Amino acid sequence: ENAVNKIISNFCHIDDEGRMHVKAYHSHQCTTCPVDICKGTLLPEYIRERAQKGVTYKKVVYVGDGANDLCPSKELGSSDVVMPRKGYRLMEKIEEMESNPTVHNLKATVIPWERGSEVLAVLEEDLQP
């Protein structure tokens, strides 16, 4: 409970023949995300939901690798961190944005990673008093 308090995922079930059936999490108007889920909508919703329960965040560290992680990365503020995995689509998308001055850049600090230990080091640093 202290480590994971919510999982956001498309709905699915396995039928009697062992086939997985996936249903969209929600409908949305975002043109960047896949039709079944917009993480850019869900991340701010989650943060508001937690705030209503008295939990606020000084910093959000968002770790991702897919192209669909760009939308929530754009929702992060200047005190937040986005950690794209090196060599994957999110890193490529961020590099494309950074190389095009007419495209709105991210507000969050970008810290690329290759190994889980690099993500852990950033998290441990942020947890220091």
Name a few traits of the molecule.
alpha/beta, 33% helix, 4 helices, 129 residues, single chain, three-stranded parallel beta sheet
> Strand order across the biggest sheet?
3-4-5
Helix count equals 4
Dominant shape: globular
Distance between the termini: 22 Å
What share of the residues does DSSP label as strand, in percent? 5-15%
User: What is the ordering of alpha helices and beta strands?
Assistant: EEHEHEHEH
- Report the uncertain regions: none
DSSP, total strands: 5
How much is the radius of gyration in Å? Answer: 16 Å
Helicity level: 25-40%
Overall pLDDT confidence: 90
* Main beta sheet strand tally, sense and closure: 3 strands, parallel
Describe the structure.
With 129 residues, this protein is α/β, with parallel strands linked by helices. The chain contains 4 helices and 5 strands; from the N terminus they run ββαβαβαβα. It has a 3-stranded parallel β-sheet with strand order 3-4-5.
